[in-house]
Amino acid sequence: MSWQSILSDSLIVASHLLLGGVIVVFCRNRVYIQFPLFFAYTIAEVLQFAVLFPMLLMKSVTGWEYTFAYWVGISLSAVLRFGVIHEIFSHVFHNYGVINQYGRPAFRWLTVGLVSLTLLLAVYTGANGLDRLASIIYLLDRAASITQCGLLVALFFLASYLHLSLRSHTFGIALGLGVLASVELVAAAIRSQLGYAGSTAINFLLTATYLICVLIWLYYLWAPERSPQFAVKAVPEHDLEDWNKELQRLIQQ
Amino acid sequence: MIITLALVILALFALLFLIRLAKGRIFPSTSSDFRAEVQPVDIQAFRNLIDSGEEEFLRRNLPPAEFRAVQRQRLRAAADYIRCAARNAGILVRVGEAARRSADPSVAKAGEKLVDTAIRLRLYAFQALVKLYLAILLPGARISAAGLAEDYERMTRVVFLLSRLQHPSRQESAAS
């Protein structure tokens, strides 16, 4: 066994043990009520590890059996992650009435746009050095990464532009998923170009990123909700409504 | 290869953006003295800058090149006003958020309304800035919906007149 595989295995084991910690914190703080899909995602990830890791070590399991189980797990994770992103958006929209009004249709159109973009990319690019099944799977993997990364970046851009203060849990879950999706996108893009070459380095990068993301989730779920930076005894006078009328007039002119 | 490279670069930008946001959240820079941060913006001056009557007056009385230069300056000034108002709205979103968490229900309700109004302003500001930047690029053109409607009406009137001149008999038969 080479030192690279020992290091990689240690990272996989450590990240899933820590993910178990995330589940414990979830149960202790009862956060699963707010984020049932993220809770389901963490459980699915731990179960996937509990099935796949022993399969990797067992000599009786064939390569095909392991690959099949691996892709089933990956597909389930991808579907659950889309659910988690929807859950995050719902939390943000629920807190702000105005965004709820404009945000839901915008979110739908953004998803449609990203999916169309990934389909276009799939038509124009292939996956080099891979067999047909693997190339289809890698294309789907890349499509999921682009869509997830795009949706999360759009969410953070919206929150940043509108100066929204996301709750710690929402921010932490979205940040972890965003980091994971962007690194997975890098990996999927490189993999579609290089095929199996360099897969050890890519797998190591993904495992290390996953560990970092689990640490992000653990930190934000563990840390108490941030209190406001200052207390307000009365809302200050403002002319925002006049400005809104003027801007609306300018837009419609 | 180009698409792969573009995807890698985009994903790295996304990652850097997320790291910057996380850093901003861990080390926030907003001070509690929001009144000092809010800059007063003269809404009457802004109204004058975007007044279509004034624009029409300048268009009629100035040579085209001069009109374009003056109009560009007016639009840039209007964009500055909007950016300033949007910045103030951003600060007031934070104030409204803090007020929303107040134990006093009336303050919490006022905070909720302030957040809604301020977010609405930032959304409008985004759309208005896009429109103004387009107008800065094409200062001679009427890009407003009202301007387009006027152009369309003028165009249909010309087409109607032309068809009457070309086929006077058709008009008569239609009238009978």
Characterization of the model:
Chain A is mostly helical and 253 residues long. Chain A has one domain. Chain A is built from eight helices and no strands. Chain A is globular. The model of chain A has no long low-confidence stretch (mean pLDDT 85). Chain B is an all-alpha fold. Chain B folds into two domains: 35-143; 145-176. The longest helix of chain B has 37 residues, at 64-100. Chain B is flat and about 60 Å long. Chains A and B meet through helix 4, helix 5, helix 6 and helix 8 of A and helix 1, helix 3, helix 5, helix 6 and helix 7 of B.
Could you name the key traits of this structure?
heterodimer; A: 253 residues; mainly alpha; 8 helices; 81% helix; B: 176 residues; 2 domains
Topology:
The complex is a heterodimer of chains A (253) and B (176).
Chain A: H1 3-29, H2 36-57, H3 63-95, H4 97-124, H5 132-161, H6 168-194, H7 199-222, H8 240-252
Helix pairs in contact in A: 1-2, 1-7, 2-3, 3-4, 3-5, 3-6, 4-5, 5-6, 6-7
Chain B: H1 2-26, H2 34-37, H3 43-50, H4 52-61, H5 64-100, H6 105-137, H7 145-166, H8 168-175
Helix pairs in contact in B: 3-5, 4-5, 5-6, 7-8
